[in-house]
Amino acid sequence: MEMERKMEKTILFSKQKANWFILRKNIYIPSIIACIVLLMLGQIISPGFAALNNIGNILAVASILAIAAVGQTLVIVSGGEGIDLSVGAVMSMGALLGASFIHGKASNLPIAIVLLVLIGALVGFINGFGIQRFGIPPLVMTLIMTSVVNGFTVAYTKGQPSGAIPKVLLAVGQPIVGPIRWLLVLTIVVLVIFGLIMNMTLFGKRLFLVGSNRNAAILSGIQVNRTVILTYMISGIISALAGLILVGYTGNAQLQMASDYTLLSIAAVVIGGTKLVGGEGTLIGSAFGAIVLTMLTSVLVAIGFPPGVRQLVQGLTLLVILIAYSREPKLRQ
Q1: In the chain, N or C: fewer CB atoms in 10 Å?
Q2: Where are the domains of the chain?
Q3: What pLDDT, on a 0 to 100 scale, did the predictor assign at position 318?
């Protein structure tokens, strides 16, 4: 009898440990819980916060951040302390140059998209080339490019944003059915496409291996430099197009209108469970992180906090998350 009891206790303990392991390894659970808590808190503070229309607004704003976080996720997954601090600057450039290229004519939209893809790819290439070929730390390289991109944008626009936004671009913020907007559908398409690229293509497999262990990637015959440079180019392209989407949603272009998206994209990626050491991360997690941050901002607005206090809370939130991740063991060569 005593032996049976011990065996039952051992089996029960093993099941509890397994369940805890599953919960701990599910990186989406913290974000989902945070969304539910923030939604309930917002409803308590401001009745109507949880209304479908307001949820649609939150998802629309979060969608732009989720798209920006796609490129940031790829860069961080690539490892080597990878990070892209030029995301906000490239988004602002995409917004201003996109509006200028289109100039209110829907027929100019395809040309504007092609030009922004080329410009974003060039910025990403310079970032990746400087990091891989000259050994410049990603933090420094992308910060330098932020100044370069901002300077180029001001020089091109002469400090005076111009160009009207055509209706076809303004439609991204319009509802399709109920609270669901075109912007949300577009974001889902982007997440699916790049999710497949990360998990189903040779590039994606190489990306994770490069992020997990550069030495192993080199020994496997993977061209690390090419993979990392291509990753930064993708980030630049996504950021430029995200800026175009942003100007379509807001309806007007302003200097440095997306500067906040640099910190927010990093925060969304970290909240989503992507490891800052590289080699592990998901786009769905980053999307959840974007929703959490947008909900947090909406709750702070409902409370009545000024912009400065909202930025302070967002910064402290990211700091707490980074401290939590820094306590995990880093088994990297």
Answers
A1: N
A2: 59-262+275-280
A3: 73
